[in-house]
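*** Fold description ***
***
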Amino acid sequence: MNVYIPGNESHCIKTIERNWPNWASAIIPALFTLFFLAGCAAVAQGGPSPGTYAYMYEGNRVHMTPSESLVAFRGLGDGFDDFTIRHSLLHDPLNTHGAMKTTGYNIYRYIPRDRNALAKSLTDRIDSAMRMNAAEEMQPVFEQGGAILIPSDEILLGFKTDTSLAEAVQFLKPVAPGLGIIDIQSLKHNRFMLRIDAPSNGRCYIVCQTLSDMERVLYAEPNHVVLPLSLPKPPARHQEYDTITEKKHTSGPNLVRSQTRSATPENENSESAPPSWVTLAAIDFESAQFPPPGWTSTLSGASDAGWGRTNYLSHNGSFSMYCALNGSDGVLPPGPAPLNMDSYIQSPAMDLSGYEEVYLELWFYAINDVFNSIIYDRARVGIADLGSTNRYYLDLALSHQGDCTVDPTTDSGWRRFLFRVPETYRKTNQAFRILYESDAFLQEEGAYIDDIRIVATTEIDTDPVGNDPFSSRLQDLKNNGQIAGIGTDDNDLRISDGEAWNLVTPDSSVTVAIIDDGVDLTHPDLNLVTGYEPSGMVGGGPRGDHGTACAGEAGALLNNHTGVAGTAPGISIMPVYMGASFYEVASAIDVAVANGADILSNSWGWVGSPSAVITQALSDAITAGTVVLFSAGNGPDRSPYTYKVAYPGA
């Protein structure tokens, strides 16, 4: 098999040597260190100084804002444990992300004791780490656009005209010593990977800016490590319900093992009417009674502040509910909410046993952004089984994604939240809860809730598509308003009545590359062909479950009495692992095209940090005649810098 390996026509060489005097060897790295620390100090005081963390993309300066709580280390020294204790640094759960295993970095989260500590945190921890030799390298971490980005010692360089490796080396020789460039690797036509000396410590941005100003250079950008933040798995304490059955209702075919529904004859399809929804509760807080009739308020934290009715903000009226208005520690909005809160408002006990689906809808207003954080100043929505200790909660945070709908496009700052009740909570003696929790350190404004609606239905299934056991749950293929009355026939792909497949018959000769976090290579409901790694080596196995779900959405087999049916059942699926950096993502695209993919399926992306290397790979794919598809994402929040459906030609 002809396996394409990007860059195999060249090799890494070290032809740029430093001939510095002894004093320069000591002073120049120190100057870069001072530059980095000055940038950190400026960030702590309200934002980076102009140009500190920035690179150029298509003539525009892309500014990066470092996290106030995350930092990445590589090459941990003997004094690192003492350093983390002294500076309240905790090993972050982000390190469990599959992509982190190959980067060599460890992400730590700083837990400040007060706002003054936060203001000094970046400078203090990095300066202290350098003096203690706690680590070989420290990098800023950027939380933006739905992703975590970490700079490295690698820079991606492109030239405007044909340039050989030898010519690139000669071109860079005059500036290499001052910029610390020690390595050049030829990647593809006119494209190169540079490496700067250690410790790079965020220095790649000033190097990129310097190179971008050179006439012959088309682009110079950091080879960021990228962690797209897909849905994290819920903690074990929230997994009392049957995860396998639940996930199959909304995602791909990787978890279809329990067949709880009877199979139907092949091609037995008929039109189904939209389900009827019953309103179990509707609260707009316009009534003076609080808590609402039948609801109760509970205060269980060190602070006795709790939810209360306010006219400070409202979504669609004059009143809403604020998290910390009541109690002796209560405050008027906008707060901030007191420390050590743990309060909730609870609905009356409900009998949900007769319903096929139950949803709670509400609107919330908050500035808190629990971005995979261990700090838990947050509002939460959930359900409690009053006959046991079982609870299931989801966070209300601006970047939260889960089994809910959060629309980043606000209604005057208000966001809509949709909470789906898991199957094992659809029984008697269940109560909905809206919570607010705060820690002992930083204070936030808190959260406001308005327009609560609880709806239920006994009629949720669509007509099955063939005999696959979960095909009646393919709400994306037959949309008639299954989710809390949202969606109409105008959104329907009209698969279940055969119209789409009568027009075009799915063909296994068509190969769709799933560029994602890998695919289950043994899955029985997929027609798999050879998969690949970003290097071009055979592989493409799963690092998570997102890629397998996407593969099932695209091409799960039809009428095999297994799982679900894809939009184009039986097409050939090429798993391509997208890697963990700008260069690896671009390479994954190149690999898929070079190995015969007809269509590239991309259900990933981030906002605000574009890459010229990825853009070029997409352009090359389109030029080669490959169809490039991007998902619309999980919300309409978009920026000019995104590769999703806004990418020209996709």
